[in-house]
Amino acid sequence: MPAEVEGRLLSPPVLGWILYDFANTIFSFVVVTRYFGDWIVNERGQPDIYVGLMSAAVSVALVVALPAIGARADRRARHKPILIAFTLLSVLATALLGVVEPVLLALIVGGVATFGFNAADSQYHPLLGVVAPERRRGRVSGTAVAVGYLGTLTALFSLGAIVEDGEAQKVFLPAAALFGLFALPCFFLVRERRTPPPPDGSRGGPFHQLVAALRRARRAPHGRLLLARFLYVDAIATVIQFLTVYARRTGDFDGDKIDVLLAVSTVASIAAAIGAGLLAERIGAKRVILGTLVLTVSALVLAAGTGASAALWVAGPMVGAALGSLSSVDRVLMLRLVPEDRRGEDFGLYAMVGKLSSGFGP
């Protein structure tokens, strides 16, 4: 690790890596969460199953491809070229969404954009081990997650201001521009050391890579983390998916109250991401994860057991804090558990587990 990276928290490589989190949350909010489905279903009048089928097809492709993509990065001992290639693919596809007209073509292009985003993200996490020494990975990861939430707020207010009802397609070109712009610092400032590739690098087709990676994970310490991650991401994804529905039906929240609840929960996520990262450096990432899960269960019991609308003002921010905390800390623990020459493949599994789990719960 270069001396300047050791000496400064916000060295150029760290800053570039953090800004990528800001960039990719802009894409995630615009395409995955807010505008793409609304555009296809509500503005183009298509059945919502079309978007569901597209998402399912992308998920299947990612499950098969992510470990193979990671193994290729390991064979070359470099993650950044793959991150750059798939980021540019996603940026280009997102821009095309702003001009494409046929619905089928829009679904295909949206699927390509989403695939590229997830493939790039799977090779973003291992770069934490490149830009930060182990003793500072918690705070760097937590800061990146917090900045990522700021990316969501930036997209919400800046892009939302230029999009009127019935004109969701107008958001994709500026979203692509912002995604690409804030990804550039990572492309140029993060530098990987040239190291020889492992002599026994895995080879074979994508399915072979997937099976081999799962077999290795079953016998390795990080396999237990991946299993736990599947379970807790599943639970949190379900809560997030139905939080607003529960607030409206059970808590009798109107739209304004729901917006305030989500805003407060987002602020809690930002604070928890930074705090959990710092705490992980003191007591260890595993203990932070366990403590966070206890808080999450407490929040769910509080909301479900009381049924009172006031409980949502506690449960919502607690779940938001859990999401911020786990997002910042579990990748730090993953880095400690996996060998350096397998980071690409194992973080491919890490991303795959998150993708699968997010779909199972809801």
What's the short version?
This protein has helices spanning 3-7, 12-34, 36-43, 48-76, 80-97, 103-124, 128-131, 137-159, 172-189, 206-219, 221-249, 255-283, 285-306, 309-337, 343-360.
Structure description:
This protein has 362 residues and is mainly alpha-helical. It has two domains: 1-191, MFS general substrate transporter like domains (Growth Hormone, Chain: A), CATH 1.20.1250.20; 221-337, no CATH class. It contains 15 helices and no strands. The chain has helices at residues 3-7, 12-34, 36-43, 48-76, 80-97, 103-124, 128-131, 137-159, 172-189, 206-219, 221-249, 255-283, 285-306, 309-337, 343-360. Helix 6 crosses helix 15 (343-360), helix 8 (137-159) packs across helix 14 (309-337) and helix 10 crosses helix 11. The N and C termini lie far apart (42 Å).
The third-level CATH topology of the largest domain is Growth Hormone, Chain: A
Number of domains: 2
The CATH architecture of the largest domain would be Up-down Bundle
H/E element string?
HHHHHHHHHHHHHHH
| Mean pLDDT over all positions | 86
- Provide a count of the helices: 15
| Inertia-based shape | globular
Category from helices, strands and their pairing: mainly alpha
CATH superfamily of the largest domain: MFS general substrate transporter like domains
Give the class-level CATH name of the largest domain.
Answer: Mainly Alpha
First-last Cα distance: 42 Å
Q: Which SSEs are present, and which pair or pack?
A:
Blueprint: H1 3-7, H2 12-34, H3 36-43, H4 48-76, H5 80-97, H6 103-124, H7 128-131, H8 137-159, H9 172-189, H10 206-219, H11 221-249, H12 255-283, H13 285-306, H14 309-337, H15 343-360
Helix pairs in contact: 2-6, 2-8, 2-9, 4-6, 4-10, 4-15, 5-6, 5-9, 6-15, 8-12, 8-14, 10-11, 11-14, 11-15, 12-13, 12-14, 13-14
